[in-house]
Amino acid sequence: MKKRGIARIFCVCLILCLLPVWALGETLTLSFVGDCSIGEAIQNKGDKNGYTWMLDQNGMDWPFSLVREYLDNDDFTFANLEVVFTERTRHADKRYPLVAEPRYAQVLLHSGIDAVNTVNNHCFDFTVDGYRDTMDTLDALGVKHFGTTYVGMKNEQDVLLTAEVKGVKIGALGFTYPQDTDEKLIRERIEALRAQGCQIVVVSLHWGDETKGVQNAWQMKFARKVIDAGADMIWGHHAHVLQPVQFYNGKPILFSTGNFTFGTMSSSVDRDTGIFQLTFEVDETGAQAVELTVIPCRTTGSGDYRPYELTEQAERERVFKKLIYTKSVSNMENLPASFAQTGTVRLENGVPVAE
């Protein structure tokens, strides 16, 4: 009997060792920051006190040096990369073509960022060739990236992210300026990531109205469709300012996470930003967001460019209040009023709970 008992214990232990970690339950904290433009408009390239000039003076670890601790201590960090790493000079006819020489991409190796979205309204500032230069630069450095654009066309770019952290497989996809017709394309990519075994799927959307402090009605409608398509969360950027957070069917929607470190930013743009940290519990039934915490920050302009944490309570609350949507929307949940004091909300079955 004793031998049989020992054998049973051995078999159970062996099975537990062979099971994937997520089957036993695992907790992951993912961080999200907004627009990161590691460079400047081409007409300002090399200017004194410009972004790359500051890197030359202070080193590649400068931009993220005041917040690096938070980005290192989570499980995975996402950022929107809004610059072209190239030495090309032919560019799109637009006001601010954003660029940096490929060597400056080393900043990402000193940032705490684990993966970047590469599709946005600046990714083709230096044509498709410039975009490919960016991809080659990131690949050479080993920086994970993702993004889909030009679907079905000659210059199609379609990169999905998969990464494994603590035994949990994370997937991500990115679209810029999404339209209703993109819903099917997004659904197909979510399904492709699930087929690859991803337990958490992040959908990155570069969208919305620039400098507007509130998301528009179409975004809320489209966000619900993306969640219904199988996304575990939506991470948005492009507005260059913070916008309120909402939840749908237990899934978080970060409509706009603001500018984080930006080489060409108007002095009139609100510099409030933050590090959005979502904690997920993952088991054999799937992933569930259980907590949202925001580290309120403010970013700086010419001559610095570093985001830093706000420490005065009044300043922190001012940022937290911007993330609370004040109107009721059918089938959607807003952050509770208590979030304005704490910057943290616990989620029960995905629903934010007032403390």
Q: Topology, pairings included?
A:
Blueprint lengths: L1 H17 L2 H4 L1 E12 L2 E2 L9 H8 L9 H5 L3 E6 L2 E2 L12 E3 L14 E3 L9 H15 L2 E6 L7 E3 L1 E5 L2 E9 L5 H14 L4 E7 L10 H12 L4 E5 L7 E4 L2 E4 L4 E4 L9 E12 L2 E13 L9 E2 L3 H10 L9 E3 L4 H4 L1 E5 L2 E3 L2
Parallel strand pairs: 1-3, 1-15, 3-6, 4-5, 6-7, 10-11, 11-12, 12-14
Antiparallel strand pairs: 1-16, 2-5, 7-8, 9-10, 13-14, 13-19, 16-17, 17-18, 17-20, 20-21
How many helices? The count is 9
Based on helices, strands and strand pairing, what is the structural class? alpha/beta
For the record, the count of structural domains works out to 1
Order of helices and strands: HHEEHHEEEEHEEEEHEHEEEEEEEHEHEE
- DSSP E strands, number: 21
Helix coverage percent of residues? 25-40%
Gap between N and C termini: 53 Å
Beta-strand content estimate: 25-35%
CATH superfamily: Metallo-dependent phosphatases
CATH class group: Alpha Beta
Backbone CA Rg: 21 Å
Name the shape in a single word. Answer: globular
CATH-derived topology: Purple Acid Phosphatase, chain A, domain 2
Mean pLDDT: 93
Largest sheet: 11 strands, mixed
**CATH architecture classification name:** 4-Layer Sandwich
- Taking pLDDT < 50 over at least 5 consecutive residues as the criterion, the unreliable ranges are 14-19
